[in-house]
Amino acid sequence: MINKVRIRFAGTAVLTLLSTTLFSGTLLAGEKYGIAVVVDLPMSIAYGDMGTARNGSAFDTKSRIGCSINQENTVVCTAINSTGVSAVCSRFQAEQSWVNAVLNVSSEGYISFRWDESGKCTHIFVEKSSRWAPMR
How many CB atoms are closer than 10 A to CB 34? Predict the structure, then answer.
């Protein structure tokens, strides 16, 4: 008798979960993230997504994050958070993997970069994904 009750309860729970998932529009909308620009000087890291930086509140006129590259493969990454704390690093004659990463930055992307004590960029991570806020 106890096993039948457990099975009925489990079956009802599964059906409830399935119907909630299938018929609820909010559960089917997909992941959405927004990460404000973070500049952590003691840890030598900056990160954030471009859409959130661009679309910040009317009171945030400072936030930005991005990387650029010139014809000599010099990569420069910059970040400024909402309070004006900034970080800049560069990598002269960057390897092709760095060039590719910078070229793959999009307006719907997340960027993270690190630097050493001389200001040389030591790490870059770029992600393009529908989960990041687009620029408006």
Answer: 15
Indicate if the alpha-carbon torsion angle 78, 79, 85, 91 is positive or negative.
negative
DSSP calls for 73-107 = --EEEEEE-TT--EEEEEETT--HHHHHHHHT--T
**Which residue matches tokens 């404000």?**
36
Identify the H or E element spanning 39: strand 38-40
Residue 63 to residue 52: CA distance in whole angstroms: 9
- Model confidence pLDDT, tens digit, residues 18-40: 344 344 444 446 777 788 899 99
pLDDT tens string 46-81: 999 888 788 776 567 788 999 999 999 999 999 999
pLDDT digits (tens, 9 = 90+) for 71-120: 999 999 999 999 999 999 999 999 999 999 999 887 778 999 999 999 99
List the beta bridge partners of residue 78: 66, 88
